[in-house]
Structures are given as C-alpha cells and as structure tokens.
Amino acid sequence: MQTRWARYGAFLLVLLLLTACGRQSAVTAGGGAEIPEEILGELDEETLQDLVEEPKYVALTFDDGPRRDTTSVLLDGLLERGVPATFFVIGQQIPGNEDLLRRMAAEGHQVGNHTYGHTRLLTADPDKVVEEIQKTEVLLKELLGEGDYWLRPPYGSIGKTRAALVKTPMIYWTVDPEDWKVLDAAKVTEHVVSHVEPWGIILLHDFYPTSVSAALDIVDQLQAEGYTFVTVKELFRIRGVEPQAGCLYASPDKLRSLG
Ligand code: NI
After folding, report:
1. Is 205 a catalytic residue?
2. What pTM does this model have?
3. Topology of the domain comprising 56-255
4. Which residues lie near ion ligand 1 (Cβ < 5 Å)?
C-alpha cells in the first residue's frame, strides 16, 4: 500500500515538474548583512539606509546585433564602465562580425540566441523553429565554444507548442522603452530609469546609435542610484533561481505566459 502511494506521489511530482515552468525554482538569495548592535547607534541615517538596503541588481540586454559600427561603440562604453551585458544576436549577422562576438565573450558579456533570420517563431513551421535556433547555436558554438546559449524569441513570443522544442531557458524583459521606434536617446533613457526595478531585465537594441547612447546614459544614471549591472545568467544565479528549458522568463521572479 505504502509503495503504491509513494509511486503515486512520485508520479504527481514528475507531472508537476513537466507541466510547470519555474515551479522547481526557489528564491534563496537576499538578506542584507547583519550589523552588530553596538555600532548601529553610531551611524547616520544615510549610511544606515545603504547598509540595510538590499543590493539592487539589473540586467541590460541587447537584441538584433551585432552591427559593426553601433555594437563596437557600445562595447567600448561598457568596457570603460566595467559593465557586463547580455547580447541576443541574430545568426545571419555573425559572418563578418566574428571579432565582435569574441570580444563580447572575452569582456564578460553573455551571448544569447535571437534566431538566425529574426523569424516570428509563433507562426513558423515547427521544423523551421528548430532550424532557426540551431543554425545560430552552431555558429556560436564554433566561435565561442560549448555553452548554453539562451534564447530570446524575436517579438517576445513563441507559443506553448513551439516552446516545447526549445532546449534552453528563454528570456523576455521587464522594461521595454521601444528604443527602435522612439529613436531618441533622452526619451529612451528617461523611460528606462523611471520604470526599472531591482531584478529587472531591460530590453534595448544595439542596432541604433540612439540606443547605444541611451544604454550608456542608463548605466551612468542607474549606477548613481546604487544599481549593479550583471548578465542575465548572473541575475538568476544571484536570485537563486534555476531557469528551466522551454520556459519564458520576464525576470527571475516573473514567468511570462507562453500564450
Ligand atoms: Ni529582435
């Protein structure tokens, strides 16, 4: 009898793991440092606030590159500031830009997959979905070595059926200033700075000079507000969340419905 229940329990657990994106994840990180009581009274309000406040982590992500002129300027600016970012690259733009990809990896950025031809996966043939992801993955592995190249589906949507074909986690975003449409660095910066929250993921495109300029302003302003920039992988690791293949995450704390 007991064995049967144990088996039933195990079956339920497996079913839960299979059907639920992110249910296995546990938020374990957090918690500020403990301050010895005897020095608490010695500190002024502002210092105390800094010590008690949780560190604020955020990830900058860039889609639709690499593009020779704009991506190079962005990499220079990020290097100067010591800030890592995440690049979801389009496979067909890799040939001729291999040095930019190598530079991203060498300078501590995360590189991810944005399909080969910026294909709308939601309506693509299932075979095409797999091909679009694999073609870019092969290029990335040849260039940068074995690794887990997370996917950002173009237009942020893929649908349940096709998501099941994806063998890595998928990354959405929490802040989208529509930089590709706005094409105004000041407006893009203002939108991001006023909408960002700790553990957020910012969406930009390293394809436009205005977005590159905005990105560097965003870094300067948010750093002044106490934010620390990390790659998407680091953001999940620090938050204590293990992202699952085939699931779409807006942030480590928020799953995006597959629709
Ligand atoms: Ni895109």
Report:
1. yes
2. 0.84
3. TIM Barrel (3.20.20)
4. 63-64, 154
